[in-house]
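This section describes the prediction task in plain terms. A model, or a person checking by hand, is given the sequence of a single protein chain and must write out its three-dimensional structure as a string of tokens. No templates, partner chains or ligands are provided. The sample shown here is typical of the held-out split.
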Amino acid sequence: MSKKTPILFLALLFIFALSWPQLRAQSGTVKSQFTETPKRIDGQDDDWEGAGFFSFKEANVDYALANDNSHLYLILVFHDRAGLSTIEGTGVKIYISQAGKKNKDIAFHFKREQVSAEEAVSRLESLGEVLPEEVKAQILEKKVFAFYEGAPVGKKLKSDLERIKGQKIEVPIFRYQKSRDKVIYEFRIPLQLSSALAPILQPGKSFNVGFDWGGLTDEMKRAIMEKRAEVSPRRPAIEGGVSEESGAIASRDSGGVDFGGKSPKKFNFWFTAELAEAK
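The expected answer:
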């Protein structure tokens, strides 16, 4: 063994020792920050100072959690367009499970949805909202209405909500904002959707959180197949020939985004978290 080998080994050991606390912190439980003032769900990060941010390096996105006595707040800060994938088309799914598990029985699908004014009134009333006639009139003045909500998609959650159908519940909401150097998604999930249901989360208790976005939706897949079918008749009759259009169409999704011949990436990650208790 050369004399340099022990020195190199000790140097690497020293570097690892310095980095170990950070590695350990990021692989352990993510602590939620308790907030006395409810977070503004506006797609901005100016009220997240002091929060402990962690990183999901595969998508180059930072994330953090906060809570008060009524809500869980989550934020995703994207620093890379590639990490966004097709997030506006697919939306973001958030799963809440028992600590150490990746159960999807409690899940919300956050996606901007544009509906007619009549549909907006019907949806609000189905959630137990009592709309005065003047409020209905204000809504109906608009042609379309945008919802920034988290639709319940987990089996257990949907079953629980079906039992209290017609009763008022608090719906999770989100917002997102784009700037030149980052894109921010903010979410607010009630700890208890309704007084008639058991709490989803409790302060001081650990749980698992999962995020899911990107890839192709069923609509995108259908659009790609339709475009391929349109191009197919124009391909050269010579065996082995490929038309110029077919290569371009096959690499685009329904939004006309070129993925360089590859399908857009689907992102998914989980971590263990713990709600903060009131100070």
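For orientation: The first strand starts at residue 30 and ends at 31.
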